[in-house]
Amino acid sequence: MANIISDETIEYVGILAKLELSPEEKEAARKDMAEMLDYIDMLNNLDTSGVEPMSHIFPVNNVFREDVVENGDSREEILANAPAVKDGSFKVPKTVE
Amino acid sequence: MSILSMTAVELSKKIKEKEISVKEAVQASLDQIEAGEKKYNCYVTVDPEGALAQAEAIQKKIDDGELTGPLAGVPMAVKDNICTKGLKTTCSSKILYNFVPPYDAEAADHLKKAGAVILGKTNMDEFAMGSTTETSAFGATKNPWNTEHVPGGSSGGSCSAVAANECFAALGSDTGGSIRQPSSFCGVTGLKPTYGTVSRYGLIAYGSSLDQIGPVAKDVADCAAILDVIAGHDRKDSTSVARETYDFVSALQDDVKGMKIGIPAGYFGEGLDPEVKAAVLAAADVLKAKGAEVEMFDLGLIEYAIPAYYVIASAEASSNLARFDGVKYGYRTEEYEGLHNMYKKTRSEGFGPEVKRRIMLGSFVLSSGYYDAYYLKALRTKALIKQEFDRAFERFDVILAPAAPTTAPKLGESLANPLQMYLGDIYTISVNLAGLPGISVPCGTDAKGLPIGVQMIGNCFEEKKILRAAYSFQKEHPFAACPGAVL
Amino acid sequence: MKNYETVIGLEVHVELATKTKIFCSCSTAFGGAPNTHTCPVCTGMPGSLPVLNRQVVEYAMAVGLATNCDITRYGKFDRKNYFYPDNPQNYQISQLYLPICRNGHVDIETSAGKKSIGIHEIHMEEDAGKLIHDEWEDCSLVDYNRSGVPLIEIVSEPDMRSADEVIAYLEKLRLIIQYLGASDCKLQEGSMRADVNLSVREVGAEKFGTRTEMKNLNSFKAIARAIEGEKARQIELIEEGKAVIQETRRWDDNKEYSYAMRSKEDAQDYRYFPEPDLVPVVISEEWLEEVRSRQPELRDEKMARYRREYDIPDYDIEILTGSKHMADLFEETIAICGKPKEVSNWLMVETMRLLKEKNQEPEDISFSPEHLAALIGLIGDGKINRTTAKEVFEVIFAEDVDPVAYVEEKGLGMVSDDGALREVVENVIRDNPQSVEDYHAGKKKAIGFLVGQTMKAMHGKADPAKINKLLAELL
Predict the structure, then answer these.
(1) Which one of A12, B2, C44, C105 has the lowest number of neighbouring Cβ atoms within 10 Å?
(2) Name one GO biological process term (chain A) (predicted).
(3) Active-site residue, B184 included
(4) More confident residue, C475 or B338
(5) Is A88's Cβ below 8 Å from some Cβ in B?
(6) What CA–CA distance (Å, rounded) separates B423 from B236?
(7) What architecture does CATH give domain A7-45?
């Protein structure tokens, strides 16, 4: 296997992705990621020099809204799915120490 | 002819002619669901009361002459990643187990306005990540042709529901083959439109640059009728393309004379099941016999589609799925210490292994130091793949290919080796990368009696060509009902 | 101690004055109850998609043109990924790779002289929601009313060397943006926010030192103090042989010290990638010209014009144009009543005095040009005298009352009945023989006393000029 994924990498990616993996999951993630990256490295066989990265398939540009208020108060609907609500707001664990 | 054996278009005609009431059709579907769900698990949510209430309202509009279209009164199902106002939409994930959208996806809204009755929400691979519908948090869906086999995925619930007559047609979504591959496995017809043709507003995103909603139905005519309804320019979706016409039904002509059909030779090599190969080539012969010019050709860069796809789709998914954090909707872990612990526990408990695998991969390929090597490389590869198709469509009207290398695998065989499972998307994935339309049409069964689909791929905005080819093919090779599912 | 130089660059966030948010048609109005200006888009509901507000692009272009930037003809949005509850999607839609403006500059002037400050780029992005910390329950509450309010971030080059230059640069930006009408730029209310990137190096050194980024600066004074505080902290570290760490720090203006905002959960790896839900913004020559042609007169041009057109002192021009709102008020008032000098005086003297008294900014002025013009009209017509006018003006300043109606209602108008005034003057002459005698003896000042007595008897509602005339006649 060409790609070796370290524990630190899995730990770091876990912080980025906000995922906490069990020791077994970490082990599997190391193996899966290395295997996938080895496979993906096949792309290096393809010469892409001078090729513009293509994020959109079609050259559609300039899609705009006009600056007109259309939405009213839909707080009730917006909060209806929240796991925790207080005073018309989404309730979360304290964000400052 | 029993109600359930009709196609959507046939049913709506009977309803308009007052031979069948909308309520009868809905009740027949609900009874079939009641009987079938024990075996197949096509649905995450069935909404009998809602469906019967809709039936009444729609019947009135039909009687009043307000609803005249081909979906009026037709009981349909919607994949559970397409938001339906007031009806639970879970993406088959624990993390959205209780999410009730406050709005309709644009495509669902179109269906409702056309008078389709929404029966419920169909099972899928969690967040559309998978090829078997086994990664659903609410249990695997089984293939109605043989319940020991998977229905394919990720729109496995939609495809099996159509095959099992648990609805007349359904909406699916296709990011890397998620309509076409399960359609092939379930012996139904499924179409992935050109990117930007059906609004993505309200489709819970997996890979935003690749996702498209499309119809799953019994036959090509139904697919065209549904596409007529759901397609359209939507100002709520910036990537929606304003097309010149949204009339697809007029393409349903039994005429392929002079149509140029290309078969990529590289798709018929190693890894393709001989029975699938034979059935697909036989389908090509059918079209040839009807006057199409069929030719083998070399489509380049085939092998690069899967790695490019997994980089792009995983990267977009890692960002798209960041919003599921236990703050605004869905699951939140029971116990936690502080914000970040809440995030981590919620997401780790709420997402299944396949979703986590792709989020991890996607986060990694975008992380500092890897972006150019992986993400930009994949986008460059995508540009080259698009060029390959552009070249091919200079010569051909339609590209004909298998939809999947095999027929439906057995339950439990696929998930152990993710990479192996990903390789099964070889014939469908490049179509998403290039934004093309593709349709999967049943073309036979293997020795085990499992369906095989032939895929027809068109150039961008040329759904009409593939619809015409598929319709012509189906004239010779009509839709075969799933033996186990006919009432 | 060695001789150190401070190197400062600024990241200035400005909330644009659009009616709706950047990606949805929710109102940007201040002051709504929590989450009443929200929709599926700005709360990150699954399946929702952003659609760009055209006005945001035009404001950004206008600011770019006014700060001498190159306007990017093919721009894109990117996603900046990080988890925080005020950020509903857990990514912010921003611009990293192709921002709308680049390579600009503005000219400033301080006691150290004139200087050009480079602008690296200006990009468009969405604001975050607001977190309120609940003291009672040890939790935080999220309000997404501000989520999705359009921002531009103006990133300067590290061209500033002192707090003075920073303040001058900010003032300059503020005036440009206010004049464009692109934002009200109020630091206290957060519609203009500055993050300070600061490093120190020995004078003459070629390489920059390690910089820190300071956040939470909500007044010019706080910015000045933060610069001094952080400069001192970094110099102290260097003098002690310690290293400055590149990090984000939060300025505590009460303690006058900055604190590191690090956390192990904060990887500062934003995984930017092109936003797949938005299409590129392509700015044609025609569009750019259209925006350019709509650019209003900016401050420097306005000052030059005032010098040409009005006979008012340079100092007054500086104050009047120092706030777009004040300049507008000035011009709108003279459009009604003329008399630029008199209008300027009311703004320069009484208005500035009251603002200072009430600790307000010129932007807070709430009276209308019609009412100031009407007041000046009352004086001109001899309906009220200046003393009364000042009293009435205080009420106009506070409540924007119509002075004509107010004077009428309160009976403040001068007595125009000359017969009545003559009677009062005769009484005053009769009752003050000593003053009359003094006057005739050549003490011309005595007339002032008599005018005062007459005014007192008239309850202030008389024209002093008329009294003088009558006294001269009757004495």
Answers:
(1) B2
(2) glutaminyl-tRNAGln biosynthesis via transamidation
(3) no
(4) B338
(5) no
(6) 35
(7) Orthogonal Bundle (1.10)
